[in-house]
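User: Could you check the structure of this?
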Amino acid sequence: MTPFDEIHARALQHHPDLDERLAAHPSPKPADQLRAVPDDRWLAQMTRCVFQAGFVWKVIEAKWEGFEAAFEGFDPSRISFWSDDDIARLVSDERIVRNGQKITATVANARMVADLSAEHGGFGAFMAAWPREDQVGLLALLKSRGSRVSGMTGQYFLRFSGWDAWILSGDVGAALVREGIVDKAPTSKPAIARSAEAIAAWARESGRSHSEVSRILALSVG
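Assistant: Sure, the predicted structure tokens are below.
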């Protein structure tokens, strides 16, 4: 496998301001900070990522105060008991993007957050305890117990929440193909697993976070 120093050098060649680009993004949160994040903020970030998927992100950002109000602060314990009438009410609420499937997904995800919080003494405690080397397993759990939190949506949720996550963007996929880790964009389970193993190995080698390794891979493409 290519030494990570060579990949870093390639990224630096394309982007002489590489260090500034990396510093512009927040570092992953340490375990104690993840544990301290309230359950409602986890559900809020999850919902933001679900609604941004396949949509113009700026529209969601512009309406976010309306989302906070319409979803009553994203209290998972409260939302998990919402009825079909509550969902129908939100489908007509002009403060948000009125997508019935994604509103229903938020109720399902509230149940997941509430359940995992009860099982682990807080959803943040659950997230903090999950090993970063097993992002594939965490994404699988979010997919099986939640709704619409799979694929790229799940990856963005983890990254934006402060968990140390890689994102298999188009450029990251191209870098992994270039390095011989996969033969095409990593979308199948075996290819994603190989990609995760490579990123973990480069993180151990370089002492960098998985998040930073995936960003450097992306920037090494051009």
